[in-house]
Write a structure and sequence with these properties.
By secondary structure, this protein is α+β, with helices and mostly antiparallel strands. The chain has helices at 69-77, 103-111, 166-169, 175-192, 266-278, 316-328, 366-369, 371-374, 393-399, 422-432, 481-492, 530-540, and strands at 4-5, 27-28, 36-37, 82-87, 90-94, 97-98, 101-102, 119-127, 130-138, 162-164, 204-207, 212-215, 221-222, 227-236, 239-244, 256-259, 288-295, 300-308, 341-347, 353-359, 387-392, 447-448, 452-462, 468-475, 498-510, 515-519, 546-549. Bound molecules: zinc ion.
């Protein structure tokens, strides 16, 4: 049997079956199958860096106070002044809230132990109609070799609170509290790693209320380190490129990302990372800044971009077929399918003859369905990424319950990062962009197939205004291709839509192995253009590695 493999995204990547996404709301779809989907908000506002997690627009950093020693000294003796304790790079949290304590109280409790750590001035917290200074304080006992020798301190008034890893627990906090804790923890972490001068090894002294370190010998100053990283939404038409790392929760995909290197612009870093991680070239002129997000684990700044990858040209024979169909139909009052279709008496299989419109050629709109074949192939490097592949906008929208129309998912596990992450916002914003006006055909699923081997038909759905879309329908319960056609016709008739048959064949679908093979023909309707069918199936089964076609068999 001659089989053509259609645009496999990658080979050899088997998908895991379960996902456990900590901290995200999960819903279950598709009764009886193990599908977990992380839902996305119904409406996603335009990207706004300040609304992303770990940044807080309402917080006043009051940077001018960092060198105002008199003001700082007054603030530290003010009973209203607050402090965020940080121990072993962990933040103090109780019942999903940040624990913020009076500074004077914490100081007195620590003074009793004969040791006073240096507070880091963070800024001013709004408290009613006035502002309170807030500091971060490293309460790790630096006299001990490691935190393993030490148990976390307990503060009066904060019994039951826990020092937690913010990277893990941050998404469970409010955005503003997570931002404040991350800011304080980041500065403490930086100071911990900047104890000695890089030039002469002399001890560093804290200056500027904790925002700078100065060498006690040569006097050179250093400031908190920030690592710029690019994160990019790479698209090709209606497809988006997403990848996954091996250590992520099963089935989770996200935007590609990576650190900028010395001597690079952000735009250059976008192009290099996409090429390195997925083997895909983005169009340099398409790279656009979108938004940024502090990612203080320990010191990244995620700089979000959108970029486009160049599509591969259509196979020449398809271009020729489509353009000849278009020119033939020019004189036919906009009925672009007239040249390639005709009414035919067909044998229903049970001896009765029914009339059905059978069209065999391609019309220009059909090439849209073939976009899946034009995508540049993703080849993940296997070092940073375990998998990288293209996802169609409609599939993502359906999988995230933003619109109806997703076919049965057959146990596929898929998830995106939580709403706290810029990646989710980049993807969500792109999903919200709709290029086309809605029409009645939106309510009709493009693909309805089952697991197993069955007869299928390729159909074209049209409305009176020339809007159309192709449908793939098949069922193990259909004895004849015409049964599938009739059932679909009953579905679309009440909507005033027309249905044409473009041919039939068989589909062998092994959901467990994520394999689909399209082959064979229909006595009643002739042979469908299986490449078209496969392109449509590729769109709706993005996590399948192998969708093949063959013109042979029955
Ligand atoms: Zn020095």
């Amino acid at each position: 049997m001659l089989a053509n493999t259609l645009a496999p995204a990658t080979t050899g990547c088997m998908l895991p079956r379960w996902e456990n996404t900590r901290g995200d709301k999960l819903t279950t779809r598709a009764g009886g199958t193990a599908v977990t989907i992380v839902p996305i908000a119904d409406s996603i506002p335009a990207l706004d860096s300040e609304e992303l997690f770990y940044s807080d627009r309402g917080f006043d950093r009051a940077a001018e106070r960092r060198t105002d020693t008199e003001w700082l000294s007054n603030a530290l003796s003010d009973p209203a002044t607050k402090v965020l304790p940080v121990w072993d790079r962990k933040s103090l949290v109780k019942d999903g809230r940040a624990v913020i304590l009076p500074y004077t109280q914490v100081l007195s409790e620590f003074s009793q132990e004969g040791w006073t750590p240096e507070p880091i001035f963070l800024g001013l917290l709004k408290e009613g109609d006035h502002q309170e200074a807030v500091f971060a304080l490293d309460v790790t006992d630096s006299r001990k070799e490691s935190s393993a020798e030490e148990s976390p301190p307990v503060f009066s008034g904060a019994e039951g609170a826990e020092f937690v890893d913010l990277r893990r627990e941050g998404p469970n906090l409010s955005a503003s509290e997570a931002a404040l804790l991350a800011y304080g923890r980041g500065l403490v972490d930086w100071q911990t790693r900047t104890r000695f001068c890089g030039k002469d090894g002399a001890p560093m002294l804290v200056t500027e209320a904790g925002h700078a370190m100065k060498c006690s010998s040569c006097g050179s100053s250093v400031y908190p380190r920030l690592d710029p990283a690019v994160i990019m939404l790479v698209t090709c038409g209606d497809y988006v490129l997403l990848g996954r790392q091996k250590r992520w929760a099963k089935g989770r995909y996200s935007c590609l990302a990576g650190f900028a290197e010395l001597g690079e612009t952000m735009e250059m870093a976008v192009g290099r990372e996409v090429l390195e991680e997925a083997g895909i070239r983005v169009l340099p002129s398409s790279v656009r800044y979108a938004a940024s997000q502090p990612w203080p684990f320990p010191s990244s700044l995620m700089i979000g971009f959108t970029a486009e990858a160049a599509a591969k040209p259509f196979p020449p024979e398809l271009e020729t077929l489509a353009s000849s169909s278009a020119s033939e139909s020019d004189g036919r009052a906009g009925d672009s399918s007239a040249s390639t279709s005709g009414s035919t008496e067909v044998d229903r299989g049970d001896g009765r003859m029914v009339r059905a419109t059978v069209a065999r050629g391609l019309v220009p709109g059909d090439l849209e369905s073939l976009t899946g074949m034009r995508l540049p192939e993703a080849e993940c490097d296997q070092k940073e990424l375990e998998d990288a592949r293209w996802f169609h906008r409609d599939w993502l929208r359906s999988a995230l319950s933003l619109q109806p129309g997703a076919p049965e998912l057959f146990g596929t596990v898929f998830g995106l990062p939580g709403k706290y992450a810029i990646a989710r916002r980049l993807i969500g914003d792109w999903l919200e962009q709709r290029r086309e006006r809605p029409w009645a055909g939106d309510a009709i699923k493009q693909v309805e197939i089952e697991n197993g081997t069955f007869k299928y038909v390729l159909l074209r759905l049209r409305d009176a205004f020339g809007r159309s879309k192709l449908l793939v329908r098949g069922s193990v319960h259909a004895s004849y291709h015409n049964d599938v056609y009739e059932r679909t016709a009953r579905e679309v008739r009440p909507l005033g839509l027309q249905l044409e048959v473009l041919g039939g064949g068989r589909i062998e679908h092994l959901a467990e192995s994520k394999l689909i093979h399209v082959y064979g023909f229909s006595y009643a309707f002739g042979q469908a253009k299986h490449e078209l069918t496969a392109a449509i199936l590729q769109r709706w089964f993005p996590l399948y590695d192998t969708i093949t076609t063959s013109d042979e068999g029955y």
